[in-house]
Task: structure prediction
Amino acid sequence: MPYAVPALGHLFQFLRDGQSLMSKASTFIDHSVPTQIILPVFSNYVVSGPESVVAYFKESRDLSTTSRSLAIMVHAFGCPKNMVHFFKPQQPSAESPKQPGEDIEQLIHRAVKTGLSGANLDALTTRYQGNVAAAVETGSVFDTGDSWTELPDLNAFVEKRVFEAAVQSMFGTYMLSLNPTLADDFWAFNRVIGTLFMGLPRWLSPAAYRARDKMLQNIERWQRHGEQHCDIERLGDKDWEPYYGSTFIRERQRLLDKRGILDPTARAAENFAFMWATNSNSVPAATWFLYEVLRDPQLQSRVRTIITPAASEVPPEKEPNKTVLTFDTPKLCSDPLLQSLYAETLRLRVAVLVVREPARDNFSFRGWHIKRSEILSISTRTEAMNQDVWSTGSDEDPHPLDTMWADRFIVDPKNPNSGPLRLSKHRRGKATVPGGEANGHAVARKPYFSMDGLSASWIPYGGGTSLCPGRHFAKQEIITTAAILLTAYDFELVDMEGKDPPQVDMSCFGFGTMPPNKAIPFRIRRSQCRT
Result:
């Protein structure tokens, strides 16, 4: 694509409206033709369209994240340049041959994947629920009893409580007690991360570097405290303890030791990157999920009828005289409406640039030769807004792709215009329960949640071998957070008649879930249904 300023290329277009730039690049010639855009720190070929996305993720083994990941570790998370080589994948050598799968980076990835799935995921979600419930039950802002309290911003209210609950669940108690401003510091960093990801020097973005350095200091303080007061090797296989938190966080620390990453700042950078990856997307997504429920009374009524039967109040551990909210997470996360609302929230609010480069010479991408030093990228939001793929409802009931439609991912066999796809196989005839018959007659299926046909279009977690291992926890975190808040409190959005509703903050385009671009004032009180 043409550009005006040689040294800066498309930088100003990207910062002003990254979505528009990536969308134009994707159709500059044709979806099948990679189109180059120029940015100061790297140039890349934009690829788009379902066929290209499928090919992109199929080539995962020949497309690497290494050089970009290393640059991000230095610029965004503060790893010293002379230490970043520790994070390169280690190749076997004649002197020290390794068996397949023994590379420490692979082991760290496997530890995260194991820690965020199966029984470990269940334990983490249960602990997270308890932490959120405890946080919302003890808020001093509600000491006025059952009267309404007006607060300036729904996003600020949600992000502090959710972030602290998630951090305590993963990293233990001391990460927060040693760093009482951690939540504020984290979100201050997250608001300026774009300039760090772009690799701009400190003199051009001093505030961003100060925010990064403050977070590194917080995490180094936690590391020192753990080293001084706790022998990690004596903790055994405890599910959770206050110094290092979850089992898989402790395992990650051991693997960093094995890798030789002993420098406190390099180690803090790695822990910082993990903390950012597990919170920067899911927390603002939880705000958007809750906001969409609150602004639509009909949707709120439907959601409440789902979450109420899934709720119960149980005594917390070691406090038999108290009760705390808890939910049947599998029941919530398998409900068609809640799943559809979750998927639509991520479709509409997430914008990630998935960036890869060839790991070998003479790499061919769908017939196009890409040099080893060049980069290929996909914009998840471009794919989420592809008019050729996604359904926009019917002429009588339109739902444009830039608007929220809570039922977009629900297929109703009785409605040929339902479902997420513009041309859906579900519309070709009456759907039935697979293999299901009653008295010799086909049984019509109930409306159901569907992601069929969207593996190349709904990609907020990436794809291929780099598919985000935290996606299952993120889903449970987003849905259960809304369930807890809606059960514990009554909410009212402050009347914003005549004012534009909040939109996504496009300054965060490319780096995950985009938060609201303005404060969302609201009123809150203790739930009258529980008193």
The radius of gyration is 24 Å.
